[in-house]
Amino acid sequence: MPVAKIRGVDIHYEVLGDRGPWMMVSPGGRRDMGGVRYLAEEFAAAGFRVLIHDRRNCGVSDVSFDDSASEYEIWADDLHELLKQLGALPAIVGGGSSGCRMALLFALRHPEAARALLMWRVTGGAFAANRLAENYYGQYIAAAERGGMKAVTELDHFREMSEANPANRERLLATDVNHFIRVMSRWREYFLKGASLPVIGCTAEDLGSIRIPACVIPGNDFSHPRAVARTARSLIPGAELFDILGPDLAVDVAPPRQWHDVKGEHRRVVVDFLARHGIAAG
């Protein structure tokens, strides 16, 4: 698997397809690139060169803790540098849930580098902000306060990262616990501020400033309510909404399997959308 040195951090990535416009797609949560490979394969077969990657603190890429910006802004800037190194700018950028937040922030922070925006499982609302802030940050702060960095390495996510890349365990154990708690607390603060925003991570003004084609596909659970996607579509000038899932589910997070089940429709919607906006597959 190729590795790029991105702002001092080793980022593992893969490019699927060898022709057509460049596209990046990202999974939700802190999942590794395997979580979106099924969709990248669909887009590559349709005639796009598709980048997938393990963001910092995900998969086999390096762990790194920097509170100079929100975690999603850091991911967006990493992505910009990675695409630049690959000669892939400007690119179509997209993702689901946390990958959607990264793509949105990429388009806002690097507008000249984004050709189109693909958004699915758009996250918003107080329930999602509070639940996910605990999942992404709170549990690790509590572990560090309770048992130092060793306790952090024993929680599922960082344990799996350490097993996939043993150097990450050494990096975690060498991290100053007070620095780790400070960064996680700062990232949690950024995230919780999103509870009252139309989309976590973006104000109405932010969304209104986007001037590239935006394809919005709603989720159907408590963390990714349809209403949040509809709001995003209404605030992004010219955005289009495509509802491809079944009925709303009374669950915190719908099973990822449902997105595999609609991958053909997901591909068709996106490819047709891009073609209508002058971005034809290769």
Break the fold down into its secondary structure elements and pairings.
Blueprint lengths: L2 E4 L2 E8 L5 E5 L10 H10 L2 E5 L17 H15 L5 E6 L1 H12 L4 E7 L5 H28 L2 H9 L1 H9 L2 H16 L11 H5 L5 E4 L8 H10 L4 E2 L15 H5 L1 H14 L6
Parallel strand pairs: 3-4, 3-5, 5-6, 6-7, 7-8
Antiparallel strand pairs: 1-2, 2-4
Helix pairs in contact: 1-11, 2-3, 4-6, 4-7, 5-6
Structural write-up:
- This protein has 282 residues and is an alpha/beta fold.
- It folds into two domains: 3-124 and 202-276, Alpha/Beta hydrolase fold, catalytic domain (Rossmann fold, 3-Layer(aba) Sandwich), CATH 3.40.50.1820; 130-190, no CATH class.
- It is 47% helix and 15% strand.
- It has eleven helices and eight strands.
- The chain has helices at residues 37-46, 71-85, 98-109, 126-153, 156-164, 166-174, 177-192, 204-208, 226-235, 257-261, 263-276, and strands spanning 3-6, 9-16, 22-26, 49-53, 91-96, 114-120, 214-217, 240-241.
- It has an eight-stranded mixed sheet with strand order 1-2-4-3-5-6-7-8, with helices on both faces.
- Helix 9 links the parallel strand 7 (214-217) and strand 8 (240-241).
- Helix 1 packs across helix 11, helix 2 packs across helix 3 and helix 5 crosses helix 6 (166-174).
- 46% of the residues are buried.
- The mean pLDDT is 96.
Q: Give the terminus-to-terminus CA distance.
A: 24 Å
Q: Any idea how many domains?
A: 2
Strand order of the main beta sheet, please?
1-2-4-3-5-6-7-8
Percent of residues in β-strands: 5-15%
In sequence order, what are the helices and strands, one letter per element? EEEHEHEHEHHHHHEHEHH
Uncertain runs:
none
* Largest sheet properties: 8 strands, mixed
Considering the protein shown, what is the CATH homologous superfamily of the largest domain?
A: Alpha/Beta hydrolase fold, catalytic domain
